[in-house]
Amino acid sequence: MYSVTLEQPQDAPAVETLLDTCFGPDRTRKTSYRFREGVPAVENLCYVARNADGEVVGTLRFWPVKIAETEGLLLGPLAVSPDLRGSGLGAQLMEAALARATELGHGIMVLVSDLADFYGKFGFRPAGPMGLQMPGEKTERLYALALKPGALNHVEGLILPFVPAEAPALPIPVAA
To answer: For the chain, which domains are there?
Structure first.
């Protein structure tokens, strides 16, 4: 049995350890991490999954981005403890986050991944044909999802980091 809740500041060390376990200590060299430097995570959209002992065994975070003048969310990282992969926990985290992002009125979500089949189940589609690009990232690894009907219509261009002035955020460290 796993519980999915919003991440709390005290969860940050356990989340960082899980991310190192899942992606390795060099994970912060990825292009998508440049989008997180100096940009606070979206506080009310960062989730953790805990096992019955309260241990953090999954995480999903979001970061604010802009495409031209349109605000969006960058999904990632999504990580599940290696011994729980295939358990459905990643899907559980995705479903909770997508429902909450839609409830909060967000319109666009983007991500960088090689897991097209997994994210395709949630409606993500290749972003290149939509005219979306991320500096330093291969277009074939970029995916987008309209959380509101038509949210991606007429939105194209570079996806860039964005710091909303009014947005409270978790103080999540991003290792250099």
So the answer is: 3-163 (3.40.630.30)
